[in-house]
Amino acid sequence: MDSLPISADIISDIRRDMHLKNLAFASIREIVQLVNRIQEMTGIQFIRTEMGVPGLSVPKVAIEAEIKALKKGIASVYPPIEGKKDLKQELSRFIKLFLNIDVNPEGCIPTVGSMQGSMACFLITNRTDDKKDTTLFIDPGFPVQKKQLHVLGFKYKNFDIYNFRGSKLKAKLEEFVAHGNISTFIYSNPNNPAWFCFTEKELQIIGELADKYGVIVIEDLAYFGMDFREDYGKPGKPPFQPTVARYTDNYVLLFSSSKAFSYAGQRIGSAIISNKLFQKEFPNLAQYFSSTRFGQAFIQDAIYTLSAGTAYSAQYGFEAVLKAVNDGEYDFVNGVREYGERAKLMKQLFLDNGFKIVYDKDEDRLLADGFYFTISYLDYTGEQLLEEFLRYGISALTLDTTGSERTEGLRICVSQTHLHDIPLLKERLENFRRGHS
Q1: Tens digits of per-residue pLDDT, 20-53?
Q2: Rounded mean pLDDT of the chain?
Q3: Domain 60-326 belongs to what topology?
Q4: Given 3.30.43.10, 3.90.1150.100, 1.10.10.10, 3.40.50.720, which CATH number is that of 8-56+336-436?
Q5: Helix (H) and strand (E) counts for the chain?
Q6: pLDDT, tens digit (0-9, with 9 covering 90-100), for 77-104
Q7: Contact 402, 188 (CB under 8 A)
Q8: How is 14-25 classified by DSSP, letter by letter?
């Protein structure tokens, strides 16, 4: 620890070279690059909590299935744009078994990760009606989704849900939808970055307002089943993963293999479109696409022009792990439960050293331990706290980039901090406290 804290001049020089003036609004990838360069220059290995990189092994069944497909020569064949038939069947089964929702296989569309799923959604949802040209983010949320809208030239609004939990959510949402320009609600559940989970009351409010005002809900389930306060890992048995799909048919669910199955490198997820929305006609789509039917436009226009489908071999791997999960042969929730164990230990270390949890409850229920949590310290802003953390060999991400109004906060991701790293985190946080109390 003699080399800590790192000289502020060293960090300033690297930031200057990167033209990185404002840490508050630095992207995740910029923070990654900054920390990599600090490590290279100082030789100090950081506790990395800035980026959600899956830190567990891929299920063996997925790897074996993909290898087998590659050996059979599948890499030389174009995949069907709508997705491999058997994979679509397994996605449909998964939605029934773990959400208790019926979605036909035709509406279960493999995508190049959830990222492509949201991009394709934005292309369609913001063109269903000329009057509805704006997406509403229920924040905090995933910053790149706003960047997607910016790249596409679409509008968005957002608000921080911190002060609008429970029944307060209805009036807040109606402030926006009453203007008639909101095409889409989007949020993540469990939430990235704050890890709160929407309650059934909140999901019902969102669903009922979607029906009332003709809004399409994009529900990002990238961290499916990872609210470890409940066991959502038993196929066909309650409790089921909470979802807005119980309260509206105007939805697209984004499901990712990256976190729940640790299959991030293969960039495969799916968009699950409700049966009703898949078949729904939107005459305004004729201005842009070959079909006015939502599902057809999604596949034959959005997915076709973005990537013409999803890597064929990855579809075999995704299908295999889904089948194992659906058949009860692989408990994917148990497979990722270690994230909750890490979060519990890490949270306690932060609390023991004078930090506070920023987003701490789901209404009156204490937050789950999972992939992320949020912290603050005394009267520091998030940017000031991150600047100091870097000197003590800890990386993080400010909440400023996520649409949060809690500018005192940092997002902590547990995925790269393994159990054997906990003693080092404890040492560094204690060192930080001594330098800042």
Answers
A1: 999 999 999 999 999 999 999 999 999 999 998 8
A2: 96
A3: Aspartate Aminotransferase; domain 2 (3.40.640)
A4: 3.90.1150.100
A5: 16, 13
A6: 999 999 999 999 999 999 999 999 999 9
A7: no
A8: HHHHHT---GGG
